[in-house]
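Q: What structure does this chain adopt?
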Amino acid sequence: MSRILSACAVLTAGGLTAACATTAADIPQPALQFARADCAASPSLAGPIGLTPEKERVSHLVVAPVGTASGCLARDGKAGPYVVFALPADYDDKTITVGGALEATRIFAPSVAVLDASGTVTRTFSREDYLYRGPVYSVQFRPRQNETYVLVTSDPELVGKRYDSVSIGTNTTTICTGYTCSNWTTGVDASQSRVFSYEGTVQVAVYDTDIKEGR
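A:
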């Protein structure tokens, strides 16, 4: 066997295993346009993504990709993808956080609405309600008695805008000389720039405030 290995391969006990690093070409880029001619005027409520976990827990996370393969809505002459979630039936002790997840170069530009069982909008959220809650640009709310679904569509006015941030942390490097090794820890300030996009990932977190149920 040749002693020269490719830069994206590692040698293991079982043989040669590919371990290629992610390149820029592999990272999804922001979609600044969305053109489809088959968009509906109202969302389909058939087969929504459920937000009720199989077992009660303190927090429950659901993610869904949104893009050209998703359902499509046409509003005010503008087309965009959408996804529908079904709220938990036992809503009294639940808090919902929903929005666009921060990816490497993009953020899905979310527009969130809550619907009743017939699909009628019960409430929407102003731009001031959207905050960066951890890695998600999101709104947060408590479901009400007459609310059944969460509709997440794209906001055309947000698409193309840029969000710049700085990630602060530490980086540890191990240095070995002879028979001894030492760790060298330095601070890391990594600037990141993301663009709001028609495509990306919607993330929903369901928090259960009833501690007894969450155990």
